[in-house]
Write a structure and sequence with these properties.
By secondary structure, the chain is of the alpha+beta class. It contains 18 helices and 9 strands. The chain has a 4-stranded mixed beta sheet, covered by helices on one side. Strands 3-9-8 form a 3-stranded antiparallel beta sheet. A two-stranded antiparallel ribbon has the order 5-6. A hairpin with a 2-residue loop joins β1 and β2. The longest helix has 33 residues. The N and C termini lie far apart (48 Å). The structure holds protoporphyrin IX containing FE. The site of protoporphyrin IX containing FE (HEM) has 26 residues, from α6, α14 and α18.
Length: 527
């Protein structure tokens, strides 16, 4: 997938022969195993050795969706030497994530996870077990508590005002705004303020060189984590690695590690200086995430956490929090600019709840029910990750009466769930009104009891940063629509806004969203 599409024919031929010869024995052994234990779910016919790998193109979530349309709500695939299932059905998803959570809540040990998440030593990519439990508890009890999230509210308000100022400066000079750029900086700065105690883009940053290096290496990391690497499915592929993917992983691993080590060293030095200057140490509310991690005890009675554990958590927080919220924001902006009547309703609500004489604050977000519907509809059509983070089963089980072997990889297709015609009507229409509750209650942006959308997953692996992620999304959108009227660049009509997507761990628009902003409030509001 992705990789297959970019091979030249001679490399492919050599690799193909090599893989056929060297994996024949492995295939014979593996292909006999699952069937002997029971009936597997239905699925498309499989090639020897490759299984269904060759039936997947550059947008695998669409291929898997078409398998579900053809074979039913639960489909079995053989991906090289790996058993896999996929589903886009709310009932099957509920069974996997709630009823059988104990069995399906592990993660596959992919090569990217090993190289890029400190040997799966983080939270998001760690297999089920005591290490995952401990790291997740640290996130929940020390980093993502309501109190700690609230303690950064002023920083978020500051970032939201910087976002408005940056857009206004471009609006005044008549330039169209690259929304990917400004929304990316908003998310990254919010995360780095909480995590590292500083902003990466803007006046307080350490300068463009460090910010650019940081963004570049983070993007490479996302790209490699999202890649479906053939070496994970055809072990012999690793011997040839024709595109040098593992080499790239090792290279990014080294660069990212250097970056994280520098962060830790800087924090240690600062702690030391503060301790020397003030014997009582410093107050909890002054501590960023890295300070907190440095102050926590380690495992088995150790005085401190290991540096590797701290680095794995830093990396998780950056990877899990930045792209998810900025990709969601870009999709929401694209869909709203494409639908001017939706923009009009968002602004009517903002004018009623907030008015023209003050800026939107976090306490307004719960009262913006129509905007919440817009975000819910955005998650239905454009979930941040098409397969969330793939799960893996820890032991054999039964689903819908079919046998599911141990170590089966689970692709919950949230993209297809939002476009499943058995679940939703007019699936291609962006229509936030469909989410307005009949009883007028507050719109919830989580999966709800019906599992018809799944923005933050459910069960043991559900996103621990859901509340914070929603604040990033709602705050940025509310400010941008309250302060500006948005339209496509000159010469284009709303229908021309392109909504082509590219596959990855998160699934952004293929092209960055460019739009024109016209201020709606009095000039002094933008200072
Ligand atoms: C709009 C923003 C966000 C969206 C849409 C989102 C969505 C998700 C999804 C779908 C998963 C995978 C769940 C699964 O595999 O079942 C996940 C996992 C995770 N998210 Fe988020 N997330 C967002 C923001 C955040 C933020 C702000 C943080 C932390 C600062 C965060 C931290 C994590 C972590 C640590 C995991 C791994 C959990 C585990 O494996 O135990 N996320 N998120």
């Amino acid at each position: 997938m992705g990789l297959l599409a970019s091979m030249d024919s001679s490399t492919f031929f050599l690799a193909f022969i090599f893989v056929i010869l060297s994996t024949l024995m492995l295939y014979r052994r593996n292909s006999r195993n699952p069937k002997s234990a029971g009936r597997l779910p239905p699925g498309p016919p499989r090639w020897p050795i490759f299984g269904n790998l060759l039936q997947l193109g550059p947008l695998p979530h669409k291929d898997l969706a078409s398998f579900c349309s053809g074979y039913g709500p639960l489909v079995y695939l053989r991906l090289g030497s790996v058993d896999a299932i996929t589903t886009d059905d709310p009932e099957v998803i509920r069974e996997i994530l709630l009823q059988q959570d104990e069995i399906f809540a592990s993660r596959p040990r992919t090569l990217a996870a090993v190289h890029l998440a400190y040997g799966c030593g983080d939270v998001a990519l760690a297999p089920l077990g005591p290490h995952w439990k401990r790291m997740r508890r640290i996130c929940m009890e020390h980093l993502l508590t309501t109190k700690r999230i609230e303690s950064f509210a002023d920083h978020r308000a500051h970032e939201a005002q910087d976002l408005v100022r940056a857009v206004n400066a471009q609006a005044q000079s008549g330039e169209a705004v690259n929304l990917r750029q400004v929304l990316g900086a908003f998310s990254m700065n919010n995360v780095t303020r909480m995590l590292l105690g500083k902003q990466y883009f803007g006046v307080e940053s350490d300068g463009p060189r460090e910010a650019i290096e940081f963004m570049q290496v983070t993007h490479e990391l996302f790209w490699l984590l999202g890649l479906i690497y053939l070496g994970d499915y055809l072990p012999m592929w690793r011997w040839i690695d024709p595109f040098g993917c593992e080499k790239k992983m090792r290279d990014v691993e080294k660069r990212v590690d250097g970056f994280h080590q520098r962060i830790i060293e800087e924090h240690r030095k600062l702690r030391e200086r503060r301790r020397e200057g003030n014997s009582s140490g410093y107050r909890e509310e002054e501590m960023d995430f890295v300070d907190i991690l440095l102050s926590l005890p380690g495992e088995d009675g150790k005085e401190h956490m290991d540096d590797t554990e701290i680095k794995a958590l830093i990396q998780d927080m950056i990877a899990a929090a930045t792209d998810t919220s900025s990709v969601t924001n870009e999709w929401a902006m694209a869909e709203v600019i494409k639908h001017p009547e939706v923009q009009c309703k968002i602004q009517q609500e903002l004018d009623f709840v907030v008015g023209p004489n003050r800026m939107v604050s976090e306490s307004d977000l719960g009262h913006l029910n129509y905007l919440r519907c817009v975000v819910r509809e955005t998650f239905r059509m454009h979930p941040a990750g098409p397969f969330m983070i793939p799960h893996e089963s820890v032991r054999p089980t039964q689903l819908l009466g079919y046998h599911i072997p141990a170590k089966t990889r689970v692709f919950i297709n949230t993209h297809a769930l939002g476009r499943n015609t058995h679940v939703w009507g007019d699936v291609k229409e962006f229509r936030p009104e469909r989410h307005i509750p009949v009883d007028g209650s507050r719109v919830e942006i989580s999966h709800g009891p019906d599992f018809k959308i799944l923005p933050f997953s459910a069960g043991k692996r559900k996103c621990p940063g859901a509340h914070l992620g929603l604040v990033f999304v709602l705050l940025a959108l509310a400010r941008l629509f309250h302060c500006f009227e948005w339209s496509p660049p000159q010469g284009l009509s709303p229908q021309d806004i392109d909504t082509t997507e590219v596959y990855g761990m998160t699934m952004p628009k293929a092209e960055p969203l460019i739009a024109v902003a016209r201020p709606r409030l009095a000039p002094h509001m933008y200072c």
